[in-house]
């Protein structure tokens, strides 16, 4: 057995207590072997965690990693105008190589901010998968389907691509890659394509992920056309199963919350994107009280504008309180749960908890910083005060991806240089 020891840290346990302990990882299986005050034997590789908090690696439940190339390209507009006037025209100019380069930049940012798993929806997925394989993190990938504005042949081809990609890449990268069937949203994919393809995804045992109830403007046409709330319509289409997860869930009424809870469908809350696009405030406290599995996601870097899950955690707490008009709503414990096990459960991964037998996915946070002093409550610090730059080490599947802030799986300088060049030429093409 090849082993990795993470020594002398404060370890965040699944019940959110913190204990001084070492962690032993079996690198052959990628699992946690032991968590104990002191390990009996030396390991093959050691990571020092003195003065640090060892937490589960953060799980980003909804992202478009390659959109890092469009960070700062178009800001300060609501969703529909932002997509139609700026983002979709620019994405129309993106080559497979752009997606590869943008994905590498996004994955570099994720690793540097302690994220070890991501659910990603985009196009040119083989390029995203290749970047994930090299970067060493976990991912649930899928090709995003848009059928509006396409003829029947092109629409069916898009849906077929999503199905085929999900089948082909499930289990890739030594099992770090899993997949989903990903219609972009309930308004951008026609019902005839959902009726035809969702049963095929079910037959293949593939989960379904889509944007839902993000803005009022997206809810209204569904109510008008189908006489149903969006998630009632989704349930009728067979898109509300326990393995499925939606992004956003901002404008959900009581009946829809009940449907989510009954179905066991996860919701990925994206507070920064919802605030920036002024989409609204998701009723996170009400959803959690109703028993809905809620996780956190950054969405893409063009609507956030970073991929730090620690920022997302703080935003979730702040916005959750505002939405509930209650300072005790979405407390630190809830936020840390959503950041780790909540997101993992929602997207169907076993990560997000530090216990024997669990996947060895960690973020090690340097606590010896002015803004993390004094250490009254480390769960509070994780929710409210820690920043991406406090992450010292990142480990996924038992492999060290970042040691003392040096990313070992990607060449940071080369990734940035390639991204700078690709972003510049992409913007030139898009601006014509
Ligand atoms: C077809 S691949 C995914 C697609 O989603 C777009 N996108 C990015 N952010 C959002 C959002 O908040 N709501 C809806 N769609 C979004 C992205 O630009 C890709 O085109
Ligand atoms: Zn999104």
From TrEMBL:
Binds 1 zinc ion per subunit. GO terms for molecular function: 5'-methylthioadenosine deaminase activity; metal ion binding; S-adenosylhomocysteine deaminase activity. Keywords: Hydrolase, Metal-binding, Zinc. Its EC number is 3.5.4.28, 3.5.4.31. Its cofactor is Zn(2+). CDD domains: ATZ_TRZ_like (cd01298). It holds the Pfam family Amidohydro_1. Zn(2+) binds at residues 62, 64, 211, 299. It is an enzyme of class 3 (hydrolase). Residues 53-400 form the Amidohydrolase-related domain. It catalyses: S-methyl-5'-thioadenosine + H2O + H(+) = S-methyl-5'-thioinosine + NH4(+); S-adenosyl-L-homocysteine + H2O + H(+) = S-inosyl-L-homocysteine + NH4(+). InterPro entries: Amidohydro-rel (IPR006680), Deaminase_MtaD/DadD (IPR023512), Metal-dep_hydrolase_composite (IPR011059), Metal_Hydrolase (IPR032466), MTA/SAH_deaminase (IPR050287). The keyword Membrane does not apply. Substrate binds at residues 91, 184, 214, 299. Catalyzes the deamination of 5-methylthioadenosine and S-adenosyl-L-homocysteine into 5-methylthioinosine and S-inosyl-L-homocysteine, respectively. Is also able to deaminate adenosine. Belongs to the metallo-dependent hydrolases superfamily. MTA/SAH deaminase family. This is 5-methylthioadenosine/S-adenosylhomocysteine deaminase. The gene is mtaD.
């Amino acid at each position: 057995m090849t082993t990795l020891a993470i020594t002398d840290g404060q370890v965040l346990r699944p019940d959110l207590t913190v204990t001084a302990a070492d962690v032993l990882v079996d690198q052959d299986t990628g699992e946690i072997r032991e968590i104990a005050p002191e390990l009996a034997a030396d390991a093959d590789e050691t990571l020092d965690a003195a003065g640090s908090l060892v937490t589960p690696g953060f799980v980003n439940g909804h992202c478009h990693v390659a959109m890092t190339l469009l960070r700062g390209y178009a800001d300060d507009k609501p969703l529909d105008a932002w997509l139609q006037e700026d983002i979709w025209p620019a994405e129309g100019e993106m080559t497979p190589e752009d997606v590869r380069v943008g994905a590498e930049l996004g994955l570099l940012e994720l690793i540097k901010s302690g994220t070890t798993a991501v659910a990603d929806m985009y196009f040119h997925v083989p390029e995203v998968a290749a970047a994930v394989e090299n970067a060493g993190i976990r991912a649930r990938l899928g090709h995003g389907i848009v059928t509006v504005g396409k003829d029947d042949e092109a629409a069916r081809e898009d849906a077929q691509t999503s199905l085929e990609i999900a089948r082909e890449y499930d289990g890739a990268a030594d099992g770090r890659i899993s997949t989903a069937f990903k219609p972009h949203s309930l308004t951008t994919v026609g019902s005839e394509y959902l009726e035809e393809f969702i049963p095929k995804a079910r037959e293949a045992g593939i989960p379904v992920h889509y944007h839902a109830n993000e803005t009022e403007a997206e809810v209204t046409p569904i109510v008008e056309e189908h006489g149903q709330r969006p998630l009632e319509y989704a349930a009728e289409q067979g898109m509300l199963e326990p393995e499925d997860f939606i992004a956003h869930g901002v404008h959900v009424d009581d009946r829809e919350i009940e449907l989510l809870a009954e179905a066991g469908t996860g919701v990925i809350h994206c507070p920064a994107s919802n605030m920036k696009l002024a989409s609204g405030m998701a009723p996170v406290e009400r959803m959690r009280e109703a028993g809905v599995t809620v996780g956190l996601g950054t969405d893409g870097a063009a609507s956030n504008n970073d991929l730090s899950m620690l920022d997302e955690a703080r935003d979730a707490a702040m916005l959750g309180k505002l939405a509930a008009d209650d300072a005790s709503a979405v407390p630190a414990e809830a936020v840390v749960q959503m950041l780790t096990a909540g997101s993992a459960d929602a997207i169907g991964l076993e990560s997000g908890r530090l216990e024997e037998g669990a996947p060895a996915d960690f973020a090690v946070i340097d606590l010896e910083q002015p803004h993390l002093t004094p250490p009254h409550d480390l769960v509070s610090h994780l929710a409210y005060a820690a920043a991406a730059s406090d992450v010292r080490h990142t480990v996924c599947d038992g492999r060290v991806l970042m040691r003392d802030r040096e990313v070992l799986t990607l060449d940071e300088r080369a990734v940035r240089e390639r991204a700078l060049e690709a972003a510049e030429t992409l913007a030139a093409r898009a601006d014509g």
